């Protein structure tokens, strides 16, 4: 990967807007969750966007994180013994995390692109993906989530209702008060739009 020089004009403006979406407080919460979820052996990053990016960049910690959300028998991502040093291997590791997170239930709109993390282009998107993953884990409540449940918001869940045939029939006989009644109403004497009314004497 070639080194990138500073951006100017419109590019700089766009990058500045993206960087403003990154929250330092959210970074602290996500770091705490990852450490509680994966164990203290993952270490702790330097504070700030760059430290957070460097910590997650090779994909190993992300892979460990998503593996902890699955049962022991079905870990989706193979975590290498030694962190990969080659660029394409690191990007491949991040891509495996993204695939496992999507299989877990993260939507495509919540996912970051590999370059967002690897080149630090959009670390706010990385935060969004991790927040969505945490919310899903809290919502599923299957015993694999560790940490404070208040760190993430529960997602809305479907509450399907079943009605019997007799209940459905009863509902047809109820007229809401706001609806009024159309009993006895008909279109007798009405004409189509735009046609003059015929007056015969």
TrEMBL record:
PROSITE patterns: CALPONIN_1, CALPONIN_2, CH. It comes from the Eukaryota. Residues 24-137 form the Calponin-homology (CH) domain. GO terms for cellular component: cytoplasm. The keyword Cytoplasm applies. It is found in: Cytoplasm. The keyword Acetylation applies. InterPro entries: Calponin-like (IPR050606), Calponin_repeat (IPR000557), CH_dom (IPR001715), CH_dom_sf (IPR036872), SM22_calponin (IPR003096). Pfam families: Calponin, CH. Keywords: Acetylation, Cytoplasm, Muscle protein. Belongs to the calponin family. PANTHER family: CALPONIN (PTHR47385), TRANSGELIN (PTHR47385:SF16). This is Transgelin.
């Amino acid at each position: 990967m070639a080194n990138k020089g500073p951006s100017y004009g419109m590019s700089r403006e766009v990058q500045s807007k993206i960087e403003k979406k990154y929250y330092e407080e959210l970074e602290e919460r996500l770091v705490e969750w990852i450490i509680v979820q994966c164990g203290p052996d993952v270490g702790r990053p330097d504070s700030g966007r760059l430290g957070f990016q460097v910590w997650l960049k090779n994909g190993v910690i992300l892979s460990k994180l998503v593996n902890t959300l699955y049962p022991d028998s079905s870990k989706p991502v193979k975590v290498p013994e030694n962190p990969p040093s080659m660029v394409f291997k690191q990007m491949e590791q991040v891509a495996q995390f993204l695939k496992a997170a999507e299989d877990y239930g993260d939507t495509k709109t919540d996912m970051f692109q590999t370059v967002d993390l690897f080149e630090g282009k959009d670390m706010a998107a990385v935060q969004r993906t991790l927040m969505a993953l945490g919310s899903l884990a809290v919502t599923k409540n299957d015993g694999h989530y560790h940490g404070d449940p208040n760190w993430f918001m529960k997602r809305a869940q479907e509450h399907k209702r079943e009605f019997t045939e007799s209940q459905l029939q009863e509902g047809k006989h109820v007229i809401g008060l706001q609806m009024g009644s159309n009993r006895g109403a008909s279109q007798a004497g009405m004409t189509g739009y735009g046609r003059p009314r015929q007056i015969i004497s």
